[in-house]
Design a protein that fits this description.
4-stranded antiparallel β-sheet, binds calcium ion, 5-stranded parallel β-sheet
Length: 234
Amino acid sequence: MISRMNEIQILVVEDEPSLAEVVSLYLKRAGYQVQVAADGKQAMTILEKQIPDFIILDLMLPEIDGLSLTRWLRDRSNVPIIMVTARREEIDRIAGLEMGADDYVVKPFSPQELVSRVRAVLRRTGREQAGAESERDLTFEDIFISPSTRAVTVRESSIELTAKEFDLLYLLARHPKQVFTRDQLLDRVWGGAEYIDPGTVTVHIRRLREKLELDPSSPTQLITVWGVGYKFEP
Ligand code: CA
């Protein structure tokens, strides 16, 4: 699978180092390139040189605040902006949207939620092709799967999968609740290769369960449909 998003550069303007770090981490996992500015002045210095493809902007910032930065930016560029605000900053949030921010998240927010919002805004503004159906990221309650980076996050921690384990999981997760027979899975994940023991699927499902399930012996996500095959239950 080819990454489509690698060239998308996101500037994260956030003065809380731990928040900046976790947001950057999730965005990188989702395949974006990330730069961080720790205050409004630093952000402006970066933006004077080059406008990125996307900006995640904390409203309360030292030096130059998020609203002033938004106003300054909108005179120069229509780069998509998602504002990060605290609950009490509702007035500022409205002002920010009126000034041309594209969306906002309220602290505390889930980093995966932010990634989904970024993607939605990118799609809406035509910067990311919506047609990449077969390569879209999948976000479920406990699992996040990104085909562009082949990253999988389970209950907020990233897990390592082999290439085939990833392909198998991605195929099942792309069609939640749909039952696949072993032959279909062999064909679509191992397709084309010479004879492969159908037991291979069983082995890979077992390994995936060990990595994904809270209790691999009574799986709740990678379900065996007796006599038929397997399905993914989100
Ligand atoms: Ca802040």
